[in-house]
């Protein structure tokens, strides 16, 4: 190519770049009329993905290094090279020109590549070319270009291969669909595996070197014909190049001895560094190519070759799912593994890579049949399979992908993404977070927390996160719930500390409703964005389902007894779906119209939660099985022991000598009203059943266990630990929530008054009307403690203050040094200190507070040795001297996510 022709190519290249892709072909046809070779050269440039300057620099370096064919070689058409009659020129590139030819001996059409002059003029390189050509010819694989022959004519070396009809992978990238991309990737990986097994490494894998035949067969081209011989890139002196404005000095990849081999965008990190490469370098290049096949852009491409090489060494590509939501998370995991910077972290063989892709292809091909709704009965497909606790889950806008938050395998909660027909989940890289909602534009609303996330309800900082991952952008503190509405508006349930209540805002900042004294449950915005459904959990044991109009007053659609916890709108917004508990062992999925008409959709065994409903009518459900475990360090024990009995063992009290534990069975094993048990703290004997009820405390003399009989209305009953009969304690018609012994003659209990507030009362065991101990509303502590002298009870008030209330009446004494959300769990034996803990914290840290000085110290931290599935420690008791303790551990045994078809 002469300098004049090169300038013409450059001129047309820049002119074509100013046209849109739809008009470039017509422009080039007119500009290159009568000169098909010129048009082909310009089109070859346009197929490259880098900037104009980068490509022109590359071609200039190729010219300076004599890597293009001599001008006279273009006259090969009509000549003979050995037994091959050259018929037409069909392509050109930095490694030579390619012709269609006829094998006169075997009567077949072949392709002949005529190699550059730089090869024939260097005896060592020519010898190496012949050796590698013979090695490539030995590769008999359907996904590798078959080499028939090599030869030399008039000092021009050439190579003969099979003739392919079709297009390069570069040309096939436009409009490439996922099934075809996976199919092509499998064939490429299989071809690589066959070559690597023969000890041949490609070193320049890219879409231009992969060919797709008309029948969909993939062929890898130029296998093993070039080889890097010297580490390190070189810089080309611009004075050696033609004097045109486009030629500048950049570090560029070349295929000469002493030059880094490969095309910059597809190089592996070891190629960029100039290190020794092996077959795993091809696997990295394969990953770059597959990334481009899936999302249409190169993983590491930047504005210049130097910047591209730097990105390969130091940066990670953007998430595939952010560009193509149809990509299964497991496929992105495959790509990510190929693109690991460290070679030991990639696939270690192309055959393993091909196997993983083939398994994915089988799942993808079979998924459409599985996605069809059941014609006669609903179908359920499990999509999570790990051990731990699943928190919240939502469909993405396409209805094919699910985002969820979970604490798997004892780790803190994270965000994950999976396909509804998949089995593997991909981490989004954000920890200690709970998912709240997914917007129609694919943005996530999440709740960030300082503490370990342990339950369905929490208080944290609302933040927004792109669905493909990234750093959260914080929006609002003290948020309980949030849900996306139309136009990416957020409905928020915010906690107002000064008011000790919550308020619903929609959009954020505009108050729609105030919630109190009950706690807020789920919140969902209707599909039309005009209404908000809200579950309000009432302390009296009833939940209310409200509909909040943006322009009107709230309406109550339902009131249930403690079971309205999960809701979602139907696709058309005409109904609200919800779950209820018809029995302790069942869950019903129901729907209610905006007029209040209800219907049951499905009933299932176990605890089922409704996570979301897709526009196609699929239901996203979670099923959870949990248990309560009791752990204890008692007298005579050399360590903490598991004293769990049935499926819901929860400690109620521990005797001061550390020898006796009172506990309750609260699940199926305990019966409909619960079971009360006594057990030796060393676990040396089986528990003793004392009776039915909810165990609260053990009397100081150890003779009685205080229980709540959960009839309507509830009663306080004392069960004897030895011989004797149960006896009821008169409580004057109050509705107690829990109780504890003040002394062996008196008990304390909290109950809800007419105004809905919870207050503390005192009653004598031998009878008489209960007495209001304080008019202050109190909070539910873990185990309010009586001072050793029997004069004071330490209680937390609703304004987050802790006070010492006199049992005989009088003004309370404030306690300094108790932190926010901390409760008193025990008074020390000497009466000088209080033991404190926080709810919602894992592990649980217990501090000891000096009442005289206000100083505090960490006393002990509680967490079971096996932390998998642990969602909280709801109950913790200890002896006043701090020597012995017992606690209840709430653990999720199994937590699974399902997609249900055919219910709507």
Model description:
There is one protein chain. The protein is of the alpha+beta class and 904 residues long. The protein has three domains: 47-361, Transferase(Phosphotransferase), domain 1 (Orthogonal Bundle); 380-484, Neuraminidase (6 Propeller); 626-893, Neuraminidase (6 Propeller). Mean pLDDT is 80; it is low at 49-73, 225-262, 365-376 and 451-455. The chain contains 14 helices and 54 strands. A hairpin with a 5-residue loop joins strand 22 (519-525) and strand 23 (531-537).
DSSP strand count: 54
The pLDDT mean sits at: 80
β-sheet strand percentage: 35-45%
Low-confidence region ranges: 49-73, 225-262, 365-376, 451-455
**Number of DSSP helices?**
14
Which word captures the global form?
Answer: elongated
Oligomer type: single chain
Determine the CATH superfamily of the largest domain: Transferase(Phosphotransferase) domain 1
What is the top-level CATH class of the largest domain? Mainly Alpha
Q: What fold name goes in the CATH topology slot of the largest domain?
A: Transferase(Phosphotransferase), domain 1
Number of individual domains? 3
